[in-house]
Here is the input.
Amino acid sequence: MKQISGGICAAKGFTASGVHCGIRKNKTKKDLALIFSEKKATAACVYTTNLVKGAPITVTKNNVADGYAQAVICNSGNANTCNANGIEIAEEMCSLIAKELGISATDIIVASTGVIGQTLDIAPIAEGIPALVKELKADSDDAAAAIMTTDTVEKCVSYSFEIGGKECKIGGIAKGSGMIHPNMATMLVFVTTDCAISQQMLQKALSEDVKSSFNMVSVDGDTSTNDMVSVMANGLAGNEEIVAEGADFDEFCKALNAVTTHLCRMIAGDGEGATKLLECIVDGADSKETAVTVSKSVICSSLFKAAMFGADANWGRVLCAIGYSGADVDVNKIDVSFKSAAGQIDVCKNGAGIDFSEEIAKEVLTEKEIQVLISLNSGDFGATAWGCDLTYDYVKINGDYRT
Amino acid sequence: MKQISGGICAAKGFTASGVHCGIRKNKTKKDLALIFSEKKATAACVYTTNLVKGAPITVTKNNVADGYAQAVICNSGNANTCNANGIEIAEEMCSLIAKELGISATDIIVASTGVIGQTLDIAPIAEGIPALVKELKADSDDAAAAIMTTDTVEKCVSYSFEIGGKECKIGGIAKGSGMIHPNMATMLVFVTTDCAISQQMLQKALSEDVKSSFNMVSVDGDTSTNDMVSVMANGLAGNEEIVAEGADFDEFCKALNAVTTHLCRMIAGDGEGATKLLECIVDGADSKETAVTVSKSVICSSLFKAAMFGADANWGRVLCAIGYSGADVDVNKIDVSFKSAAGQIDVCKNGAGIDFSEEIAKEVLTEKEIQVLISLNSGDFGATAWGCDLTYDYVKINGDYRT
Here is the structure.
């Protein structure tokens, strides 16, 4: 397996595009994205567990109920959520793009992201669709740009891998960067692959993967109403279709996880206002659940996040967040270290502080990517969670998001 | 029942003091507080549920196991938590103050608040204790000041009420203002009363009260390691001792709740960096639990809190926070309004947005105390939770708390 260029267009048969259609007032900001597979693909999705769901979630669920999809349409600038006519608008988006592409409206994955509770006008979308289809090409960038909201960078990655002697490719794009605290689903992520895999195995791979990838990311503790991850697999790589567990399935899962983990790190690192990517690595837990609970509790702590912004080795906040996580841990066995490109510094041993150089700690914590290493010393399970620091800019961005 | 002056010294037989003993470097900041009852009092406490507990919590639990206490000693500037010798230091604090007061060391409630994981030196405390005892007087202010950390205002309140024709008094002091997300306990709150009430009934009253008072406050979602609420009742009001439920007990609970609710509002309003007190009032829930879950979820949402800082009527974030709260609600029945001294504005009806004047909304949300009113329209239960907005100053305060 190796990282390659191409993003969602790395896999055979996929093209993509992004245009400004007018949902956003800023004309330099693309707001409508399309991903198209020349061949109908098996499709798997996971969705937000928020009871308040965007209308596109409901429509997509219906459309992929048969296990197939051929295109993704996604707008930014408006979440099409908590609107009286949301379902109608989402269905209309599917009909319009399907007609232009000459495919069935029930083969469309539809998604929206942006402000909640404002009516989404179909007019600019209808107007933009012909250009959107015309612009389709083997280039990820415009689509990746068009799904961005407060994101500061496009999030795109791809890998190649081999199944039964055939080269397969897989790639994805994602948008963060606020209202990020996925629970059995995630922000918006669209993955494409030319690997041949049955819908059942594709869903199995995705549902398992999100547990250790997107569900381990938190920017601000707020689970979005419009979270969705979709994977389309069109089979054009020509490998023998994966229909059961085994070496081929494992290889596919590994490639999928490379894409999703890469996107997780990008999403967390580009969290709203973030200056640092935080990675909390827990080991020595007595169960997987304990490791997950502890790592997520630390990554979600506002106090810990603010301390990391200030490059302050305030490990007491790490202990505090472990203590209230709900996990049953032996506090007196916990070790904590901070690590980055500048080195590693141990700050807590057996649940109590140890002497350390504040100067070196500052150096370690001034880097852009910080690992907090937590050893529970009570077993063999581990977990990794991703987040970001809490900064002035988070407050600024969210103090006047709508205006 | 009426509000009176006097704080923790309003009730007969209680005196208090606060000094700078040298735990903090800033000599103008008091860091050691004492509350003393001339008569041994029945005592009830609730404590943090954080598994990482400050050493003073453990020592206090032992000391009040017999149901009695006569004094509270509390330092700020150091939490005496996650230290190898924490218990020893907390016990030493009890011995020293007990000796100076001429009472038993097991009648002391001891508390600490400040940085976690730094050894607490007993020397300045030992040195400060004689002055602390000498300064005892019928004045709440110095003690209220000495327990403050990042608090910007002293938190103090008292009420008088009548039991069987006898006037009783009750008062309390509290410290916030970060790491505030109590769970079956709270930040530091010390309540005194001269009402005669058995230990069993006092504990019952307190344990019940915190469910609707301190457990409904969140500043930042971080449950502290040192949370504690204690009540001492010395019986000097001369009423017939309350030993069972009934009208007298109800009257006492009402007075206790007046004190605790007042302190809750003060703590939330003085949350770290806060510019606004947020009060989330839920009604029409199908159970008390649903009402509690919904109100706390909204008050804890970073996105909602940042929107309130920006006076942005972004009600979609309220819906979002209800949706991921875990409560089983019918989204399509939810109404949301914002209310303050400037008026009320309805923004969401039946789970969807309604037209409203952004100008009036801005006026409503520019006030210092904001109510978000949520009607679930599914039953007769309600709950109120308190919090504050998320501001630049929260980040600033917590980016370099230790330095």
